Amino acid sequence: MSDSEWWDQVVQPATAYLTARQSPGGGFCFYRGPYLDEPNLADTYCAIRALRLLGQAVPHKARTLAFLHAFDGFDQPAQLHARAMGLLSLAPGWRPDSRLLASIHALRIAPAPAAGAAELHGWLSRTRPIARLKHAFDGITEAPTVRAWIVAAGRDGGYGERPNLWDTWLALDIAYCCGARVDRQASLAFVDRLQVPPYGFTAVKGSVLGNLEMVFAGVRCCALLGVPVRFAAQARSFVCACQTGKGGFARSPGALPNIELTYRALWILDRLRRDVALRAPSACQDRFQ
After folding, report:
1. What is the structure's pLDDT at 282?
2. Does 205 lie in the same domain as 153?
3. How many domains does the chain have?
4. Residue at a domain's end among 60, 79, 106
5. Which domain holds residue 155?
6. Taking Cα atoms as reference points, which of 173, 178, 182, 247 lies closest to residue 216?
7. pLDDT higher than threshold 80 for residue 51
8. How much helix, strand and coil, in percent to the nearest 5, is found in the chain?
9. What is the pTM for the complete model shown?
10. pLDDT in tens, 206-238
């Protein structure tokens, strides 16, 4: 099957799955049904990004814009990230108004825990949306300090209480946003050790399990480091097997889909389809969305 043929087989059911989860008010919710409809920022952002990757317009765009604007004043980092990046995806070139920019400017990055600490995963998860927002719109005034924290938190090229692929992706993305000079060769070696034939990537050294989230983290690490995905065909096959009969993607074959996993799957497939994992990090625009 050619690249265009397998991509075409993904597009139509994935588009149908996503559009079916749009609420009348313009937002999205993965579990919406006849008696339950609670659109939220996270699902709306992921749906916008996923539809963009599919080359599809967001239905009822004006309503979706109104939905995002209705969250003015919400200052939690993950909500700010979903709202701002959702608006940017709907209207390329968009810039935050003074109130939103002030909210982004007010975000602060807490001190990082020590390398290998149990709290490191939580710190990386909280810091990434802040770093991305500040890099995109405001500048990271504390960049030198964050750079030092990121460099100190690494162990043999990986990050986490037990160095793992997910925390390593979070750390490398933060490092890029604040201009940190990580040990690239060590990170390359760490990520390469986690490239495995059955799925494309696994979470930690010695693991024989795979899931869509680890493939997503691995492909993003490769893009940030500017290296190819070694088992690209296997990764693509595994991700395609995670697509359900209704068009959405699940964490593993046979599991239940949601909008966030669908976005991640489409990001992987689009990245592999365009072979941009071979490009230098400066060419990879999508990681700022």
Report:
1. 41
2. no
3. 3
4. 106
5. 116-179
6. 173
7. yes
8. 55, 5, 40
9. 0.92
10. 888 899 999 999 999 999 999 999 999 999 999
